Every structure is written in structure tokens, then in C-alpha cells.
Amino acid sequence: MTSPGRYHLLLTVDGWPAQHGWWDSEPVARDKVKQWIGAWGRPGARITLTDEETGCTLTTWPDER
């Protein structure tokens, strides 16, 4: 069985998963983050990019502060 990809992008809306994507390339996944923000960025939405190999969160939108 083939892995879906190392870099996992998750969109949640009001705390519920709405869309997932997996890519093998970090630059491609980071570009997808920008596209998803443009398409889905609105109140209640959250976008998270995780490195599935290390378990580290690479970026979130909106920023955690």
C-alpha cells in the first residue's frame, strides 16, 4: 500500500474536517496552503499543514498567537 504523502493539509470549518490533501513535496504543499487560504479563508476556517513523518505542525492559518 502506498502512503498518501508526507505533507498533510487539513481544512476544518467550525471544528469539523472539511477537506484533506497529501503531498510528497513540502514546497507544493506550502503552495497549496496559500491556494486554500484564498479559496476557504473565512471566519471559522482553520488550515493546518503537518509533516506526517515527524509529526510537526509546519504552519497554520490563521496564525496561532
Task: Give an overview of the whole structure.
The chain is of the alpha+beta class and 65 residues long. It has one domain. It is built from one helix and four strands. The chain has one helix spanning 26-40; strands spanning 7-13, 16-23, 45-51, 56-61. It has a four-stranded antiparallel beta sheet, with helices on one face. Strand 3 (45-51) and strand 4 form a beta hairpin. The chain is globular. The relative contact order is 0.25.
Secondary-structure blueprint:
Elements: E1 7-13, E2 16-23, H1 26-40, E3 45-51, E4 56-61
Antiparallel strand pairs: 1-2, 1-3, 3-4
The tally of strands reads: 4
**Helix percentage:** 10-25%
Low-pLDDT runs of 5+ residues are none
Give the CA-CA distance, first to last residue: 39 Å
Query: What about the largest sheet?
Result: 4 strands, antiparallel
Briefly note the structural class of the backbone.
alpha+beta
Approximately how much beta-strand content do the residues carry?
35-45%
User: Any idea what the radius of gyration is?
Assistant: 11 Å
Mean pLDDT: 93
Shape: globular
Task: Give the strand line-up of the largest sheet.
Answer: 2-1-3-4
Number of domains: 1
With helices defined by DSSP (H or I, 4 residues minimum), what is the helix count? 1
* H-E order: EEHEE
